[in-house]
Sequence to fold (526 residues):
Amino acid sequence: MRVKAIIIDDEKHVREGLLLLAQWKHHGIHTILEAEDGEEAKKLIMEHKPEIIFTDMRMPKLDGISLLKWLHSSNIHCKTIVVSGYDDFEYMRNAIYYKSFDYLLKPIEPDVLNDTLEKAVHEWKEQARTRKYLVEENKVMNEVKPLYWDRLFSNLCRAEGEAGAAGEKIEAEFGIRFGKMEKRISLIPIRPVVLKSFQGDRDLAFFTLTNICNELLSKQNDGVCFRNIHKDEELAVLVWNDQNLTFLLEELYTLIYQFSKICITISLGEKSLSMQDAYESALKVCMQDDLRKRDKIITSCNKPKPLLHLLDYSGDLKWAIRTGSPDGIKDLLQQIFQTLESLHTVSMEQIQLWENQFELLRTNWLKEYEIESRSSFYRGVDYWSEDGAFSFHKFKNEKTKEFMELIETLKSKKYQKEKNNMQRIEEYLQQHYQEDVTLQEIADTFFLSREYISRKFKQEYNLTITDYLMNIRLEKAKKLLENPYLKIYEVAYGVGYGNEKYFSKVFKKQVGATPNEFRRSLLNYN
Fold:
């Protein structure tokens, strides 16, 4: 660590004396600046940020006391050593008050000077190291803590009842009687915001919107906003103080609109002591609402019309595809769209069903034509106007594009293979290691059988998927353990382990040391 120093004194021979007497290189100081008064010194200090400052007290323009005041108020990280020929109590008192490291009287003894300089450099390095750790700790905590709460609240949305340990942590963090309070959940599908305001950057959208919402919710401790890790684009607002709920949700709507210029729809569920019941109530409202309406806040839906099943048209679609006629497909799709628009509710539930059934049809037809499935097919998901309103016209265009691409693929049986399946699965594991990834989930994601994935992955990487995922998590954990201020359970949650003891057991078995032992070995090495 290279250290810089500055000598401030209006007498040139004093500056020269300090330059000769101090063992600068021995103390790691390679740059020594000089100034004749405090005004000149301020400019040099702002420009070069020296770690060690020697200053006289009596100087023209700006004296030592004024300089000490300025250094103190500027919060500059340095060690100041006062060098004065005056054994004056007022100077001494000001030096102490403004946190001067030491006070040396002229003439200066070389041993005293170098001893003071050594101590000053050592203390500055220790404090700099502490500041660095604190910065790293804050950085890691800012990254890990939201993940922890997102996971905890998301799991409570799926679990039966409120787990005791999770409830206690919530009560300790937010100062509420979580298990005894009725709760309501609002859901905000953010796909329009992601597409229109964040150019598809989902993580940045979640980070920004949760901060906006939590800033408002925390003012009166009304609730908390979190990312549902089990859904791709679902923001959840858990409210435990609903005295001003309507005003609160309208304010959330306004804040999000002011930032993104997107009109969102907030779905509000019923009250419940169970977070799972509160979530499922809100999810039902969200999934069954007619997207063609423009309501800000919805609390209930009319009885939904029956869902349209694309599979019911599979025979006609397959025949149209076999003919290879784009016009034939477009005519058939137009009939399906007319039926959907007039006889069915255009809801998130309906769109999700359409997307899932189209994926199934496409996969089956590709297999029939002996064409290997791929991940680069066009996926039409932009069904919204620039202000966030659902557009049935855009929905039709997106779905038509998907069918047109499929026709061309089946006709030519040619496509560009970007990555083989196992490479894509390995990439998927790198991106989702913090989640509870299962073999079945991977099979569903890549439309391959579990047996095929297990056999091929082992051949490619000489590891099972479980072992490969474990290695990713352990490598990430080792990195987090470098920060001594991060607790072990925070490291565990940060790499996808919901149980600290199980994480420690796996870590010890694979690394040969417990997480704490591994951390101590890092500190001893440094």
About this structure: The chain has four domains: 3-130, 159-298, 310-415, 433-524. The domain at 433-524 is CATH 1.10.10.60 (Arc Repressor Mutant, subunit A). The chain is about 55% helix and 10% strand.
